[in-house]
Amino acid sequence: MKEVKQQLVKTAAMLCGCQSIRTHQTLLDLDLDLELDPAQMAKDLLHQADSTTEELEHGWDREMSSIVLLIHLMPPSAHGCNKRPGKLSARQAIDRLVKFIKTGTSIEGHLDSITQRRQPYLLAVGTQKSAIHKYFIVIDKHAVPCQSPDCLASFDELFKAHLVFATSYNRDLANVYHFLQTAVYQIDAATTKVNLRVKEMRARMLH
């Protein structure tokens, strides 16, 4: 897990060209779309990833922020009949990867609220987003407890759940998953078809 985290932080710092940035707002608390400057969005998320837990009372912790950063750096590819570019707000993008519920909220109630089949995602339970004490992998309206409360360890389990259950990636997160699969986990790197953006990021990180 330490290696995975180092790779995520290394990628973020490399592409942003900075180590941190001072700001009074974080991207995850705003409903922004991807038409805004991606470099500025990356800087804001990198700041959140570098912040202390106390500074993140209204946002995710630094580990989750590092993962979310990759979503904005590798947004969805065009899909559908019209091949129109995908446009996701920050909230929509993270919603496909992780959902937050407060401690004491019924997990069964959350599962009952699912109205359509979704690809696996993380359900984070805590007093606030920066203080998660339990993660679950939600798949087919079942919540499978993660073995560790650590964000990156839980994300590792989420990634591997796709392999165990032989399920495809969420298409809006496919670029991120393909990047992690081929660059971090180094699975089928030579045979997996990825878009130019993923190839570019993978080449920059590995060389």
Characterise the protein shown here.
- This protein is of the alpha+beta class and 207 residues long.
- It has one domain (2-77, 88-206).
- The protein contains eight helices and four strands, in the order ααααβαβββααα.
- The protein has helices at 2-16, 38-50, 62-73, 90-95, 107-112, 151-164, 174-184, 196-206, and strands at residues 98-102, 121-128, 131-139, 142-145.
- The protein has a four-stranded mixed beta sheet, covered by helices on one side.
- Helix 1 crosses helix 3.
- The two termini are 21 Å apart.
In percent terms, what proportion of residues is strand?
A: 5-15%
User: Can you tell me the residue ranges where pLDDT is under 50 for at least 5 consecutive residues?
Assistant: 15-38, 52-57
| Sheet of most strands | 4 strands, mixed
Major sheet strand order: 1-2-3-4
Distance between the termini: 21 Å
Proportion of helical residues = 40-55%
Gyration radius, to the nearest Å?
Answer: 16 Å
Q: State mean pLDDT (0 to 100 scale).
A: 75
Q: Which structural class do you get from the secondary structure elements?
A: alpha+beta
Q: How many strands?
A: 4
Oligomer: single chain
Order of SSEs, N→C? HHHHEHEEEHHH
The total domain count is 1
* Overall body shape: globular
Q: What is the helix tally?
A: 8
